[in-house]
Specification:
about 550 residues, alpha/beta, six-stranded antiparallel beta sheet, six-stranded mixed beta sheet, 18 helices, elongated
């Protein structure tokens, strides 16, 4: 329940502090005094969107603070938000600044507005002046029936399975599209893979080929130079270079001891002869290995041309990049098999989840179909209590396309005369809609355990004894929960545990109107009921009637 409310600089409200008791509290006031501002302020505490238009010109921000008792269902939300309830009491604050920034607090902890929305569902239920239009809302009708049918567990599982199903279908669509693209490009990808595979590439090959091509393209010059060099080493009939050096070494060796300056020359000549012998053999080997075959040169140049073409075609720098590209195409070409396997797996998963979802839809349908007659009967009984003596009210559970809440469409049918019930949204008058909504709210409150219920003129379009009965029904609801009802009917206002009056006055300097609210008791309450009965000119008869209305209620 809501224990107290502090409002500062909200629309026409300067500063307002008010405490609410348990049971039924009534709020009345002149038309335009600002009664509905209270609900607007409370809605901010439940995460409603803030607007800088709420802030009076004289202020920079508006503040709304509420003190609530904490229902058990709200504890997991508080734990997740890392916010505490002090001794079972929950303090919520909302600040709207003129710059458009909104801040929300639970206790002293700043929280996202979403946390207030999550908490709000367990703290209050606000019935605005136009909420009777919800009867045309398919989700509201479903919520009403589900609250009675106790479908929470199956409904949660159904929503989860539907979400899982949509996720799997999305994956299937994406994978199928990938397969379609892969199939469309299959021949192209296979041809490119074969090109690279047939080339039998290896890293460093091009560098080797370029060196060989350079050698082969100069083969004749190389052969000629090697032949001339060999002739120097092997000059034919004349002594060769190696033999000449050997002879020189022998001759110098004979005279070294007589010519000190020639010491060691013989050994150096012997060393030079050995080096020249090695050089001669190397030149001879090179000469015999020199390839002047034009066929080999053509093979090398053809191979180089192939690699150059592949590098250009595939946009690669070297053979390593071409080899990596080949591996990528190999994966793409073989990837269709993996895609086909994934599609088959997804279809099996979808089939399994669809069966599970269908079973949950069936369970929800059975529970709703079982609960619908009893709920319809309760509502019809309430409507007849509210002086719709011939009214018939029905609830039909019709087949609908499967979705997150099952495969049902809930239709409320109504006819005040009891002859031809139709969809309630098309055939009920304003007063009838008010009575239907009150009946629904009374039943939902009984099943959902909502701690506080706000009514904003739910009695619109009703008067006389029917209004008195609506007051009695609202009062009965107040015996099990906290109910705060804004009303313009004296028959309703006379009920309840507490009565508050909203009045409009002007600021101290008279420059702008200010909305205030205070509790009335005793004679003050009698006079407020009398005003509702007779208007601004309160007659003695109205006062007497007001006393009769007030003191005939056992709740006072």
């Amino acid at each position: 329940m809501i224990k107290s409310l502090h409002i500062e600089n909200y629309v026409l409200t300067g500063s307002l502090d008010i405490s609410f008791p348990e049971g039924l509290s009534i709020i009345t006031g002149q038309t335009g005094a600002g009664k509905s501002l209270l609900l607007g302020a409370v809605s901010l505490l439940t995460g409603a969107k803030g607007d800088v238009g709420m802030i009076p010109p004289s202020a920079e921000s508006c503040v709304v603070e509420g003190e609530f008792t904490v229902p058990e269902e709200a504890l997991p939300i508080l734990e997740e938000a890392e916010a505490d309830a002090d001794g079972g009491v929950l303090f919520i604050r909302r600040v709207i600044n003129r710059n458009g920034r909104s801040r929300a607090f639970v206790g002293d902890s700043p929280v996202p507005v979403q946390v207030l929305q999550d908490l709000g569902r367990h703290l209050v239920d606000i019935h605005g002046q136009h909420q009777s239009l919800l009867l045309a809302d398919a989700r509201f009708r479903m919520k009403v029936l589900d609250s009675v049918a106790h479908t929470a567990e199956d409904l949660s599982a159904c929503k989860a399975s539907w979400k899982e199903l949509q996720g799997l279908k999305s994956q299937l669509e994406e994978t199928s599209e990938s397969l379609r693209r892969a199939a469309a490009d299959k021949e192209y990808n296979e041809a490119r893979f074969r090109q690279l595979d047939d080339a039998h590439l290896r890293e460093g090959e091009l560098e080797e080929l370029e060196a060989e091509q350079k050698r082969l393209s100069h083969a004749e010059a190389i052969s000629e130079a090697l032949a001339q060099a060999s002739a120097i080493f092997e000059p034919g009939d004349a002594p060769g270079l190696e033999s000449s050096i050997k002879e020189a070494a022998r001759l110098i060796g004979k005279i070294e001891e007589f010519v000190p300056s020639l010491s060691g020359i013989s050994e150096r000549l012997q060393s030079a002869r050995i080096d020249i012998a090695d050089i001669r053999e190397s030149v001879a080997d090179a000469a015999s290995a020199a390839d002047v075959s034009p066929d080999r040169l053509q093979i090398v140049e053809d191979r180089m041309g192939l690699i150059y073409d592949l590098l250009q075609k595939f946009g690669c720098r070297d053979e390593a990049a071409l080899i990596a590209e080949k591996a990528r195409y190999a994966e793409v070409v073989s990837g269709t098999d993996a895609l086909e396997e994934r599609i088959a797996s997804l279809r099996k998963e979808i089939d399994s989840v669809q069966k599970r979802h269908a079973a949950l839809c069936e369970a929800l349908h059975d529970a709703r179909s079982k609960a619908a007659p009893g709920l319809a009967s309760d509502i019809q009984e309430s409507l007849r209590f509210l002086e719709l003596d011939r009214a018939v009210f029905g609830i039909e559970v019709r087949e609908a396309p499967a979705g997150p809440e099952g495969s049902d469409a809930i239709v409320f049918t109504f006819d005040a005369s009891g002859r031809n019930p139709e969809d309630v949204a098309r055939c009920a008058s304003g007063g009838e809609l008010s009575r239907i909504m009150l009946s629904l709210k009374a039943i939902m409150a009984r099943y959902s355990g909502m701690p506080t219920l706000f009514f904003d003129e739910i009695d619109t379009g009703v008067s006389g004894s029917a209004a008195d009965r609506m007051g009695r029904m609202i009062c009965d609801m107040g015996s099990d929960m906290q109910v705060i009802a804004i009303t313009h009917l004296p028959q309703v206002a006379a009920k309840g545990n507490a009565h508050f009056v909203v009045e409009k006055s002007f600021s101290d300097d008279g420059s702008f109107p200010v909305t205030g609210m205070h509790r009335v008791d005793g004679d003050d309450r009698v006079m407020e009921i009398a005003r509702l009965l007779s208007g601004e000119r309160i007659t003695e008869e109205a006062v007497a009637n007001a006393r009769s209305l007030l003191y005939s209620n056992t709740t006072l």
